[in-house]
Amino acid sequence: MSAELTYDLMLEVTGVLRSIPVRTKLDSDLRVGETFDLRGRRWVVSSVDQIGGEDFDRRAVAREVAEADVAA
């Protein structure tokens, strides 16, 4: 996909009770199970919802990938 999509991301950090909200633009769709790097950490997408609004196109939730998962 060539057009930029705006995502509202909720980043779920291991060991932290509150998620980190981030708004970002990506040039491709995020898919459940996909991993990406952001803020010096590795994340895996756990859900993506299509949102019909002017401020953003998609809402996604991603959880931090544990270091043990990365080493495997």
Notes on the structure:
The chain has 72 residues and is mainly beta. The chain has one domain. The chain has one helix at residues 67-71; strands at residues 5-12, 20-26, 35-38, 41-50, 58-64. It has a five-stranded mixed β-sheet, with no helix packed on it. It is globular, with a radius of gyration of 12 Å. The model has no long low-confidence stretch (mean pLDDT 82).
Q: How would you briefly describe this protein structure?
A:
By secondary structure, the protein is mainly β. 7% of the residues lie in helices and 50% in strands.
Name a few traits of the molecule.
72 residues, single chain, five-stranded mixed β-sheet, mainly beta, globular
Q: How far do the termini sit from each other?
A: 31 Å
pLDDT under 50 segments (min length 5)? Answer: none
Shape, per Cα inertia axes: globular
Radius of gyration: 12 Å
Please estimate the helix content: under 10%
The ordered string of helix (H) and strand (E) elements is EEEEEH
The beta-strand count equals 5
Oligomer: single chain
**Mean pLDDT across all amino acids:** 82
Structural class: mainly beta
Relative strand content: over 45%
Number of domains: 1
Q: Strand sequence of the main sheet, in spatial order?
A: 2-1-5-4-3
How many helical stretches? 1
What is the makeup of the main sheet? 5 strands, mixed
